[in-house]
């Protein structure tokens, strides 16, 4: 099991898993007919987070999924009061939406940009879609880094959120204004970076990525087809 988790999944596999998990769990058929299968599918993104050594996110998510499953099992047909109904609603929301969102997050954080572009090219996605997606991904990553640096600079000067919570104008001035200034610079830099990497529409470019469908990808594809089978059986059987 440990050896399997150490292997890198292809982006196409992770994208397929994101779509299947999001769709099959969102409609709720699995949770009603095959709760154990739904729980296993819900825990899958957190197991993959363990492979990326994101233990804190995996532990929090796993505990949340298990608690939500227990609440749904014991309150689904026994919820009588307003509070019990609220707990049931939150539990169903967690079980249906959170795994798909977390699988999408795992897909993004575990994929290198070169692998992403190479995989999209292999999927015959047009350059008009690939290039904007690549530029946007680099832009949001740069914005996150800039925002983190702004927060660190404010902390060094004693301008924490706790001190400025009752002075929203200063909080806006010290945090949002520098971020807006960085955004204009970052947008230009990302655009120039895309040009220097040879990302032009209709121009074939080489790639250093060695991404390909491996045995581990075939295993997860098989698991997703099994999940689709349980979903169809739960819906139409």
Automatic annotation (TrEMBL):
Which InterPro entries does the UniProt entry name for this protein?
Answer: ABC/ECF_trnsptr_transmembrane, ECF_transporter_component
User: Is Kinase among the key words of this record?
Assistant: no
Q: What keywords is this UniProt entry annotated with?
A: Cell membrane, Membrane, Transmembrane, Transmembrane helix
GO CC annotation: what is one? Answer: plasma membrane
What Pfam families does the database record attribute to this sequence? CbiQ
| Entry's transmembrane regions | 12-28, 34-51, 82-103, 213-232
Query: Which coarse location class describes where this protein primarily resides?
Result: membrane
Q: Where in the cell is it found?
A: Membrane
Q: How does it sit in the membrane?
A: Multi-pass membrane protein
Q: What is this protein's record name? A: Energy-coupling factor transporter transmembrane protein EcfT
Q: Which organism is it from?
A: bioreactor metagenome
